[in-house]
Write a structure and sequence with these properties.
The protein contains 14 helices and 15 strands. The protein is an alpha/beta fold. The protein has 2 domains: 204 residues, NAD(P)-binding Rossmann-like Domain (Rossmann fold); 134 residues, UDP-galactose 4-epimerase, domain 1 (Alpha-Beta Complex). The C terminus is likely disordered.
């Protein structure tokens, strides 16, 4: 695969999503000749008009707000590379799609594989770290066994759907020569991420900004490798350029392993918030079908060696950059980034509906009037 340049064309599915928007932004900044986005706008974290206003101006950007299936049935345009990000997403986002996650993911991937074979295009399949089922005490290496938990859950359906799609693509590479590369992102965070799908960084930031308790699942000791979206977007594009066909690469910052409790502390420090920590059962928020992930963090040596990829940005930068974006957002965009559950939490707090504060910790030293004013000011701006 020749490096993508001003003479290249890319089909980017899910290109208006969180990771997809940053992949799109980097492709445009690097001057790739043409990028066509296919996105049905079912999970885009900010409005398309907002996203487009933040991107470099590019005459080579076009898009269709339709599904992958609809696009492939209606069009036969040729592209040099396909980067496939379109998917249901998020530990809470998958809950409404249970029973349909497998056909959705597998069918879209299969159709794009057929397209890539027909047009001799490179296909980059953006999979998930969920395929590991937790790895070895949290550490996930590409050649580790994939662990399938005993209980059938919606989260498991998402994981096995992504794994099934990967398996099909690798087998097609072996049998037909399909030019495919797979990437598995780990706990991505940063600007434009929404809490709507159950993602923890925007949820914590919105709670801190509004002066609400930061709701931490369980005891907060679950370990994650939070990776900046710009690092991950760079890894996706490097996979398109330099990845070895038939190979999977972990994309996660192995130096960013923290507990969720430590992440909450970082959010409180960065935002200078008066918010407290509250330890809860996640099913209190998302219902009985929600399942928390095992510890997971990557071995990223294959991407570092094979793609020349080096994640640069630490956990604090993930939080600071996401916070900088969120605090400047319009009221409408803030509500989208916070997610419906946080807006409901705000409404309940206003109405005095918080049932118990037994598990709420005292705020950290250094609480400031500025933090209180900021939280109060944002409450006034958000309409319920």
């Amino acid at each position: 695969m020749a490096p993508l340049d001003e003479n290249s064309s890319v089909l980017l599915t899910g290109g208006f999503g969180f990771v997809g928007g940053h992949v799109l932004e980097q492709l445009l900044r690097e001057g790739v000749g043409r990028v066509h986005v296919v996105d049905d706008l079912s999970t885009n974290p900010v409005g398309v008009d907002v996203l487009l206003s933040e991107l470099p101006r590019a005459s080579g950007l076009t898009y269709d707000p339709i599904t992958v299936r609809e696009y492939l049935e209606e069009s036969n345009e040729r592209f040099d590379a396909v980067i496939h990000l379109a998917s249901v997403v998020g530990p809470a986002g998958v809950l409404q799609h249970g029973g349909r996650i497998v056909p959705s993911i597998v069918n879209d991937t299969s159709m794009l594989a057929d397209y890539a074979l027909e047009h001799r295009a490179r296909l980059v399949d953006v999979s998930t770290s969920e395929v590991y089922g937790g790895g070895r005490d949290g550490l996930c290496r590409e050649d580790d066994p994939k662990i399938v938990p005993a209980d059938t859950t919606y989260r498991l359906e998402y994981a096995v759907a992504k794994l099934a799609a990967e398996t099909s693509l690798i087998n097609l590479h072996a049998r037909t020569g399909l030019d495919v590369v797979i990437v598995r992102p780990f706990n991505v965070g940063g600007p434009r991420q929404s809490g709507e799908g159950g993602f923890v960084v925007p949820r914590f930031l919105a709670q801190a900004h509004l002066g609400l308790p930061l709701t931490i699942f369980g005891d907060g000791q679950a370990r994650r490798a939070f990776s900046h979206v710009k690092d991950v977007a760079d890894g996706v594009i490097r996979a398109a350029r330099y990845g070895t066909p038939g190979t999977a690469y972990n994309l996660g910052n192995h130096g960013n392993v923290v507990t969720v409790d430590e992440l909450a502390g970082c959010v409180i420090t960065v935002t200078e918030s008066a918010s407290r920590k509250q330890y809860i059962d996640p099913t209190q928020i998302y219902g009985p079908d929600f399942v928390e992930a095992n510890d997971k963090f990557p071995s990223a040596g294959r991407a570092i060696t094979g793609l020349g990829w080096t994640p640069q940005l630490n956990v604090e930068t993930v939080v600071r950059d996401a916070w900088a974006y969120m605090r400047k957002a319009s009221s409408e965009t803030f509500a989208r980034l916070a997610g419906r559950k946080i807006i409901e939490q705000l409404a309940e707090t206003r109405a005095g509906g918080v049932a118990s504060t037994d598990a709420v910790h005292e705020p950290p030293a250094g609480e400031t009037a500025l933090a209180k004013d900021r939280a109060a000011g944002c409450v006034r701006e958000i309409s319920i």
